Amino acid sequence: MTPILKKTIHYVLPLLLGAFVLYWVYRDFDFSLAWHSMLYEMDWGWMLFSLVFGILAPLFRGLRWKQLLDPLVPGVRTSDCVNSIYLTYATNLIVPRAGEITRCGLLAKYDDVPFAQSVGTVVTERLIDVLTMLVFSALVFLLQMPVFLDFFRTTGTKMQSLEHLLTTPWTYVTLFSIIGIVVLLHFLVRRLSIYNKVKGVVYSMRQGLLSVGAVKNKPLFWLYTILIWLCYFLHFYVAFRCFGFSAHLGVMAALVMFVAGTFAVIVPTPNGAGPWHFAVITMMMLYGVTAHDASTFALLVHGIQTLLVVLLGIWGWLRFSFSSR
């Protein structure tokens, strides 16, 4: 396989995958009704409030990352850590997962942080987030399992709706999402094999990976971790209050949808577009929301949140562009 073809697959496949899933999810959707809902029915006060948490989550992530970097390179600017996170999210809209490399490159340029060491800290961050999400997901599943069983016993028609959701075309959506994850893992393994050929890089990455043990204020580090995920959840949950059809949904319902959406984002599409919509729409229908209302919610909430990511990315880019260093 030629390098050009590899790059084409790496950059184009996520876009095609997201477009394919979005097409299947919204192929019969009336977008004019969603536009009307956004202009005349959506509560913009609640939406703006939810966006506050969308700003705070990457802010806390930047503060937590600085704690990992300080034992390696003291004096890294807090603002650079935060702004690089904003740029990370925006970069991932263009090339999924490329943002992590971008933020390491920015700190290498502006704060003289060794690239390999910063990559190691990013890997550490991701491992912590994965463990946090797995524990969180297990708790949600255990807490909600009786609710699901009671729901199916009292409303048998909903089980039929669920069976319908799991047939075509949803089966194809799931299949293509799994293929996307496999391709992503393939590229990650290839990149890791390249790093392993250079002993110096491996050593530096090891330092970054072990940086969590050298964090000076560990309680604050774990507090930032909790705040990051709390803000992610509130960014999603508060949006329920924007619409009459979702305002009645409780915290537990939101937790189930949040977990489903978080796992859907693993699929390498820009900001989880497509798989996230599929997961959220499916779970909202499980809780009694109509297909059209659930599709409207996913479309508008994801679109507005993506716009926020773009604006924060522009802010971060401007801060670095006009830096005197």
Number of helices: 13
* Helical/strand content category: mainly alpha
Number of domains: 1
Oligomer: single chain
- Total number of beta strands: 0
Strand content: under 5%
Mean pLDDT across every amino acid position: 80
From the spread of the alpha carbons, the general shape counts as: globular
Q: How far is the N terminus from the C terminus? A: 41 Å
Description of the structure:
With 325 residues, this protein is mostly helical. The protein has one domain (3-320). Helix content is 78%, strand content 0%. Helix 3 (44-69) packs across helix 13 and helix 11 (251-264) packs antiparallel against helix 12. The longest helix has 40 residues, at 115-154. The two termini are 41 Å apart. Mean pLDDT is 80; it is low at 154-168.
Main attributes of the structure:
325 residues; mainly alpha; 78% helix
Record the SSE blueprint.
Elements: H1 3-26, H2 31-41, H3 44-69, H4 78-94, H5 99-110, H6 115-154, H7 156-165, H8 170-195, H9 199-209, H10 218-237, H11 251-264, H12 275-286, H13 291-321
Helix pairs in contact: 1-8, 3-4, 3-10, 3-13, 4-5, 4-13, 5-6, 6-7, 6-9, 6-11, 11-12, 12-13
Summarize the structure.
The protein is mainly alpha-helical and 325 residues long. It is built from 13 helices and no strands. It has one domain.
